[in-house]
């Protein structure tokens, strides 16, 4: 038997239940899950506020770290430390909010060298997405000398890690937040300036004053449109989220008059080779002290309550779920 958070379609409140091992999906590798992360998508799944779950009943949790308990995959052996993020786990396939998970070997990664399971989940899907976004800016040619880089939703999971990574890489980071009371936190992560989100929530002109060489946006909606309008010539925006909305009320002006590049970030179906490389970079680059400072650890039973807090914008940084 193992403990799991269990979601049924008829009653969208997750329940902590005890399930028999043979309830697990029949897949190649069984993992004894030790840690998971609470991500925005998990919070949507747990609360039913977004159509995340596509197969019922579901064990949510889009990422996890643990130890292989049984393996029919040549790539993983019993006792090996592993982790997983994405691939529709916690959406279409049972996920990490359970003491056991059973998944195809092709979805697993060996735990990156230099990270504990807890640290891997302190980063989790959010940290991985932040790294993919930062790598997109670098790949598209944004250098520290080109000017300031903006990060929206900066006190959240993706935003906090993006601020930290960019500052460590020598960029001047301007953080945008709806919580100006968190300025000290954002400066501690490396932001040089903190701006109120409200500046970006008003309808923007097609082109605003050119200020940013790069941007990581987790908010979408009007904020993303305003960010695009205020990019410098050849600026690059990595769009990875929709915390403020799915729409995009922009014009083509920044793209055709300033050569702005809009790069989409998808962590779920990201190819395994890119994944391994991004996780290796995270393991090397992340400041473990700052990571610990932005992380709160909760037990499995607290996930439903904290999921609601997260969607209400009351959670700062990252939440790690201790599953074992
Ligand atoms: P968090 O909830 O931790 O952070 C989101 C932040 O966005 C909040 O902390 C808040 O920051 C800001 N925010 C919240 N609500 C609103 C709102 N209504 N309007 C404007 N800003 C708001 O979530 P994550 O960091 O984990 O995820 C952020 C986004 O990125 C989500 O939309 C998520 O779905 C997406 N995502 C996408 C991935 C991908 O593969 N593309 C992978 C992972 C996440 P502040 O208070 O500082 O303004």
From TrEMBL:
One Gene Ontology MF term:
acryloyl-CoA reductase (NADPH) activity
Question: What Gene3D superfamilies does the entry give?
Answer: Medium-chain alcohol dehydrogenases, catalytic domain, NAD(P)-binding Rossmann-like Domain
Which species is this UniProt entry from? Acetobacter okinawensis
Report what the protein is called.
Answer: Enoyl reductase (ER) domain-containing protein
Q: Which NCBIfam families match?
A: oxido_YhdH
Q: Which PANTHER family match?
A: ACRYLYL-COA REDUCTASE ACUI-RELATED, SHORT-CHAIN DEHYDROGENASE/REDUCTASE
Q: What's the domain of life for this entry?
A: Bacteria
Enoyl reductase (ER) domain span: 10-321
């Amino acid at each position: 038997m193992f403990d799991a958070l269990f979601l049924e379609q008829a009653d969208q409140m997750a329940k902590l239940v005890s399930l028999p091992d043979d309830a697990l999906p029949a897949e190649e590798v069984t993992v004894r899950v030790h840690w998971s992360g609470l991500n925005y998508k998990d919070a949507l799944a747990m609360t039913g506020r977004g159509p995340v779950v596509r197969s019922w009943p579901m064990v949510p949790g889009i990422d996890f770290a643990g130890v292989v308990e049984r393996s029919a995959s040549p790539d993983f052996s019993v006792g090996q430390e592993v982790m997983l993020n994405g691939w529709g786990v916690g959406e279409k396939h049972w996920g990490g909010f359970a003491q056991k998970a059973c998944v195809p070997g092709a979805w697993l990664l060996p735990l990156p060298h230099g990270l504990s399971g807890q640290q891997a989940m302190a980063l989790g899907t959010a940290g991985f997405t932040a790294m993919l976004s930062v790598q997109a800016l670098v790949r598209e040619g944004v250098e520290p000398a080109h000017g300031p880089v903006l990060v929206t939703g900066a006190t959240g999971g993706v935003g906090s890690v993006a601020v930290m990574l960019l500052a460590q890489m020598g960029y001047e980071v301007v953080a945008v937040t709806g919580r100006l009371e968190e300025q000290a936190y954002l400066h501690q992560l490396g932001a040089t300036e903190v701006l109120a989100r409200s500046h970006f929530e008003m309808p923007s002109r097609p082109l605003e004053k050119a200020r940013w060489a790069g941007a990581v946006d987790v908010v979408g909606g009007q904020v993303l449109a305003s960010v695009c309008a205020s990019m410098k010539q050849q600026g690059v925006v990595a769009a990875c989220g929709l915390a403020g909305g799915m729409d995009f009320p922009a014009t083509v002006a920044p793209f055709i008059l300033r050569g702005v590049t809009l790069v989409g970030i998808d962590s779920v179906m990201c190819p395994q080779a890119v994944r391994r490389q991004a996780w290796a970079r995270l393991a090397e680059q992340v400041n473990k002290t700052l990571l610990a400072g932005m992380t709160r650890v909760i037990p499995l039973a607290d996930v439903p309550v904290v999921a609601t807090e997260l969607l209400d914008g009351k959670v700062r940084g990252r939440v790690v779920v201790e599953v074992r």
